[in-house]
Specification:
This protein is mainly α and about 250 residues long. It has 2 domains: about 1-100, no CATH class; about 160-253, Alpha Horseshoe (Serine Threonine Protein Phosphatase 5, Tetratricopeptide repeat). The chain contains 14 helices and no strands. The chain is globular and about 60 Å long. About 75% of the residues lie in helices and about 0% in strands.
């Protein structure tokens, strides 16, 4: 399971929001208002504030990074993609105050991958994650993001297994990454291995409902009905919105 965001992009966003950065106070005010409006579900008004903040400083990378982070935090993934693509385009054409550092650019591509996968636009998500990996090929979060994309959409499953296995080797104590590896094993019908891997993921992140559901699904496929029921019920206690867990529970009962 991919994380919503790595620390790099939100560190930049926090800098822009709290200090104004190179965008100046007027731009920061727009983003602060946008954040409040997004929290209230007033998306049109928030978009106007974000657009005004960018328009005030169109060559400032911080304005785009902050805008993208605000949209992602509100699960406005299409809007986040539009902003992220605009930032990449301006960087490529040399229309920013400074050239984006390589690792920051890689992180932005990774965020685009996450956002496109949630729209969903699988092709663009794949391209974005591949672009991130071109810039930072041994980043476990990027390997995990692309591997999860393949596994969760039942495409290129062997590649998903390879990518997530590499990610686990680089970050063996990251529960989200271990979960992606186990989910790849599950999708390939490797149920014995999937149960063991997903148990480890749940040990690392015991309060994550989606991970509990994945373990329950693996138990069910492995023929362990009682264990599956326990995990699926725990998953739904942690997250009532897990529709797949609800379906599996009905099937098991």
């Amino acid at each position: 399971m991919p994380r919503v965001s790595s620390l790099a992009i939100f560190a930049l966003a926090l800098c822009a929001l709290l200090a104004g950065c190179s965008g100046g106070r007027s731009s920061s005010d727009h983003f602060e208002r946008a954040g409040r409006l997004l929290g209230k579900g007033q998306y049109s008004a928030a978009r106007n504030e974000i657009n005004a903040g960018i328009k005030a400083h169109p060559s400032d990378p911080d304005a785009y990074v902050t805008s993208m982070a605000l949209y992602m935090a509100s699960k406005r993934y299409t809007d986040a993609c539009i902003i992220g693509e605009a930032l990449i385009k301006r960087d490529k054409s040399g229309k920013l105050h400074y050239k984006l550092p390589k690792l920051v650019k890689a992180d932005i591509f990774s965020q685009l991958g996450f956002c496109y996968s949630n729209i969903p636009d699988i092709k663009r998500a794949e391209h974005s994650y591949e672009s991130a990996l071109t810039l930072d090929p041994n980043n476990p979060q990027y390997l995990n993001g692309l591997g999860w994309l393949y596994a969760d959409n039942d495409i290129k499953l062997q590649k998903a297994l390879e990518l997530t296995q590499c990610a686990v080797e680089l970050a063996p104590k990251d529960g989200s990454i271990v979960d992606s590896y186990g989910w790849s094993q599950y999708k390939l019908g490797m149920y014995d291995a999937a149960v063991l891997t997903l148990k480890r993921a749940v040990e690392l992140l015991p309060d994550n409902g989606e991970l509990r559901y994945h373990l329950g699904a693996a138990y069910a496929a492995h023929g362990c009905r009682n264990e599956a029921l326990v995990e699926v019920r725990k998953a739904l206690l942690l997250d009532h919105s897990l529709t797949k867990a609800n379906k599996l529970l009905k099937k098991l009962q």
